[in-house]
Amino acid sequence: MNEGFYKRLMEESPIGYAYHRILCDDFGVPCDYEFLEVNNAFEKFTGLDREVIIGRKASEIFPKSKDQDFDWIQFYGDVALNGVAADIEDFSAQQNRWNKINVTSPEKFYFITRFSDISKEMKTLSELDQQQKEILNSVQEGVVVYGLDLNYMIWNPYMENLTGIPAKDVIGHHPTEFFPFLSEAGVIEGLEKLLTSDISKNFRFPYDIEQTGKSGWASETSSQLKNSKGELIGIIGVVHD
């Protein structure tokens, strides 16, 4: 198959494609990049005319890019200079669309970007996330999630009602800052052991919260929380009054 076949294949691809060269300053630090080649899908994705951008620098085409929070030049430069492929998901406010951008480097100083529209996938994830939040907020039992440092990450409305303390106050804080009795009841020690042992823990303890005057007895069943790769990301606890 000749070069013409691959170029025709690229032009007909629904995935936006662009070929670039990274530009560096006198110290070898990426400072800009220029467009060398793009396909039809790229023009549709970005609204940029290839006759206008080919051979021009990104700083000329996107003069306000340096004001953005994300450093695209450094991101692309890392790939172009080190040869390590990267993926990023970016929302375009101008186009009201989510794009997935795959970046590879065929040779040093050059990089290829491939754009695909993932708006539908992101919308589905957003809807699922909203459903999970609604379930978490409506479930009639306490749900707490601790990070690997045991600081609170999730504190649902049931816990707010049980303790009288809102989520905004406890999120990011260690349990003992608000509930010192958890140490006396052995809960903190049990949670620490859970970080190294995948065996659920059951706790029963009296609570007396000085700040709100809430008191009584509670039980908590805690277990390891893992991501889709099976990596430990925290501990989840289910609390009953």
Description:
By secondary structure, the protein is an alpha+beta fold. The chain is 33% helix and 34% strand. The strands form two sheets. It has a five-stranded antiparallel beta sheet with strand order 2-1-5-4-3. A hairpin with a 5-residue loop joins β4 and β5. The termini are far apart. 19% of the residues are buried.
Major sheet size, sense and barrel closure: 5 strands, antiparallel
What radius of gyration results from the CA coordinates?
A: 26 Å
Count of individual helical segments: 10
Instruction: Return residue spans where pLDDT drops below 50 for at least 5 consecutive residues.
Output: none
Strand content: 25-35%
Strand order of the largest sheet: 2-1-5-4-3
The counted number of beta strands is: 10
Shape, please? elongated
List keywords for this structure.
241 residues, alpha+beta, five-stranded antiparallel β-sheet, 10 helices, 10 strands, 34% strand, elongated
Topology:
Layout lengths: L2 H10 L3 E9 L5 E9 L1 H7 L3 H4 L4 H4 L10 H11 L3 E7 L4 E8 L5 E8 L1 H20 L3 E5 L5 E4 L1 H7 L3 H4 L10 H4 L2 H8 L6 E9 L4 E13 L5 E9 L1
Antiparallel strand pairs: 1-2, 1-5, 3-4, 4-5, 6-7, 6-10, 8-9, 9-10
Gist of the model:
It contains 10 helices and 10 strands.
